[in-house]
Amino acid sequence: MAPTPVAKSAPESDSLASRFPTAYTILFALIIVVAGLTWIIPAGKFDRVENEAVGREVAVAGTYKTVDPNPQGFIDILLAPTAGFYDPDSYAANAIDVSLFVLFLGGFLGVVNATGSIDTGIRAAMRKLKGREIWMIPILMSLFALGGTTYGMAEETLAFYPLLIPAMLVAGFDTMTAVAVILLGAGIGTLGSTINPFATVIASNAAGVAFTEGMVFRFVLLLGGLAICIAYVTRYALRVKADPARSIVAAQAERNRKAFLSDNEDATQDRLTGTQSAVLLLFAATFVALIWGVSSQGWWMAQMGALFLGMAILIGLVARLGEKRLTSTFVDGARDLLGVALIIGLARGIVVIMEQGLIADTILNSAAQAVGGLPELAFINLMFWIEVAMSFLVPSSSGLAVLSMPIMAPLADFAGVTRDLVVTAYQSASGLVNLITPTSAVVIGALAIGRVSYDRWIVFVWPLLLILTIFISAVLSIAAIL
Fold this sequence. Notes:
Layout: H1 3-19, H2 23-37, E1 44-45, E2 48-51, E3 56-59, E4 65-66, H3 74-86, H4 96-114, H5 117-128, H6 136-151, H7 161-170, H8 175-191, H9 197-207, H10 215-242, H11 253-260, H12 274-296, H13 301-318, H14 323-336, H15 338-356, H16 360-371, H17 376-393, H18 397-408, H19 412-415, H20 419-433, H21 441-450, H22 454-481
Antiparallel strand pairs: 1-4, 2-3
């Protein structure tokens, strides 16, 4: 009797996933929707001045004015994905450097996988962890949260999915668990940013306050949110391990195992050769160098891409792959992540349409008028929801800070709320939305690498979002009345 529900549910889930639009369709549809809004929402602009503390131009409160409209048409829609890769005037980060980084990452992983080192190493590690695999979840989520709260770890996490997913599958979990560990771990760290220069520091500077102000409540958001996320993911993982049919991605379980677990090596082999051990040491050193470079040396995508390219060549030489196999596995690995690179450009295209259509400042001005004159509790909670709405349009945390904080933060003075609390509302809203927004290259890229459809991710994460929203609102409300 037991197998019957599984046999019925898998095709139904598979059919649902096949009917749900792909990430490409969702993002292109959003480009069309935002282009349509440029024909409806009046065009307007704030005056802007250079802010040395922020290092960019910021809007000047009280200077909003309507301007001639620039509605976006059919040609603009087709140009938007391309412009999203390199638009020099956007307040959001360009996508070309991120996309190239993803391709170099894919090539690096292709070379490493050709050695069989990862598969064998994972089997050896799982044998030693037998019965204690669940501890990977709180440990790894805490480490990713540390990266998120300190330096805004986001695009960099894309490098960890191909490593963690096979480990989770071998441990008896599913791809959803692996995606959740990284995406929620780094995401909750960004939501509870403490010294993150791309969120808290930029937003505080734009708001005219020190980034250390409001630190106590940000720590509350970080630690409380992390505990909630760890408990949520751990509960799900234990349920899947006990009964794989309860996995949200159960319909594609076999396909995922074939995609992420190599068929080239003997499944019983769990002892590394000398060459494979050397490859794994170089593999680990690559990620140590990555974290060191990003956190202390100011590395960005070009330096990270160069790191993966150089290490791919070195690993190929150590493993004696030969010139032809080295280049072919590198190209094949890059090809596997080509879809992720294209998705990143599509996501940025939405912001390009909004900027060229001159509606971003109009939306911001309407938001500022909505919160004017409200009492403390109503002000801070409405501010949070306004930032939530704007985060869907501007998924870049630094871009949203530069856009909204110079206008929204001064309004706190009239509501009897400190400006640092507005910064906290902004970063918590941005962090929450960037766990699900289809306009975020990090979310869509992670799901593409993990072979998790967007609808399956929403099914998994929406109860957690509800819990986090209640938690954030409670923290903001308490902070406003103290």
